Amino acid sequence: MDQSLKTRPGRRLGFGARVTLALLASTTAAFALSWLLLSSAAETAATNAAAGRAATIARLLAAENRVALADGQHLSITIRSALAEPGVREALVVDGLGRVLAPAERRDERLSAFPHLGNIHTLQGLVTVVAQDVIEAADVVDAGSRRVGAVWLSMDRAATPDAAGAARLSLLGALLGSLAVGLIAALLVRRMIVRSLEAFAADVDLAIGGRQEALRADHGLPALGRLAESVDYLIERRRPAAEDAPPLASTPVATAGGDGRLLLDAGFVVLDANDAAAGILQSSVHGLIGRHVLEAIHDHGFVLGIIDLLGELSRVEGTRRIIATGTGRRYEVAAQNTRDRGTVQVIMRPSGG
Questions:
Q1: Which of these, 10, 24, 76, 164, is most buried using a 10 Å CB contact count?
Q2: Is residue 271 within 8 Å of 261, Cβ to Cβ?
Q3: pLDDT at residue 76 in the model
């Protein structure tokens, strides 16, 4: 194998290097795609978690001020607990008329709507919305059946950067581990492929070069020998159907010269066929032999009739029936077991009825 698989003139990379690059490229592409998909999923999960956290803080803020709002104790209204939470940018508490009660610097300011949540007076229960880089949450404060106020807050989408960063680091570590395993597998596959091809190419080069020392019985050509053994095995598997099957003329069912005839094995695979059968089935002899009747015969109703007929052979020695094709032509179809290795002969002749 002087230059069969190694670098040839005019080529910078040999066959092995190209196989390695192809495997590495496919592994890297799979890693990049996985990273994009999982990063997107992680981002969505982080946003949902932040929205849930904002809703929880809004509900707690409403519960904290419910008694003071119900009793009109405006000086007792507080938002310190909400502002103390990481990521919370701003918080408001308003009374039932939309007048701001907290924070103190905006007290008595009147609002008709929250920035992204709409009209304060039509707000129904706990509501959250994701708007660009912030998440807003609002909750209604009721005292029995009476609406006494509402709370609102805005929060960064990346409300828990440390947790999000840790999740991304864990994800990156898992993907890098998968990439390392994929690269190792790619290198092993490359080694097996290239070694086998190099051994085969070496044997071919020796055989073509006529080097007698390589052709001696004590040296041999192992790669070519394995290929020859594989080909011989396939030929031997095919030979019983192609060579050893009894000819139709020797089967015990006598038919007229224009009858279509099929010879099937025990699994209903076509071993032999004549031109009349190929014409009836709108195929060719070559297209019938070696295929199961369900694959060889494309007329669905006709082949099911033949299968039913063959099924009766387990109970009756020799059977026949009239079967119509999809085009309306009717044939008398007979089936009978032969004397040779459990094969079955099917005869088809036009029906005059």
A1: 164
A2: no
A3: 84
**In sequence order, what are the residues at sequence separation of 6 or more whose Cβ sits closer than 8 angstroms to the Cβ of residue 48?**
none
Segment 120-136 mean pLDDT: 88
pLDDT of 318 above 70: yes
- How far apart, in whole angstroms, are the C-alpha atoms of residue 154 and residue 87? 9
Report the distance separating Cα 292 and Cα 272, nearest Å. Answer: 12
- Cα–Cα nearest to 68, from 48, 95, 44, 92: 95
Region 198-225: what's the mean pLDDT?
57
Distance, CA of 232 to CA of 115 (rounded, Å): 80
Burial class (CB in 10 A: 0-12, 13-18, 19+), 25: exposed
- Tell me how far apart the alpha carbons of residues 15 and 8 are, in angstroms, rounded to a whole number: 10
CA angle 179, 182, 186 (to 5 degrees): 135
* Predicted structure pTM score: 0.42
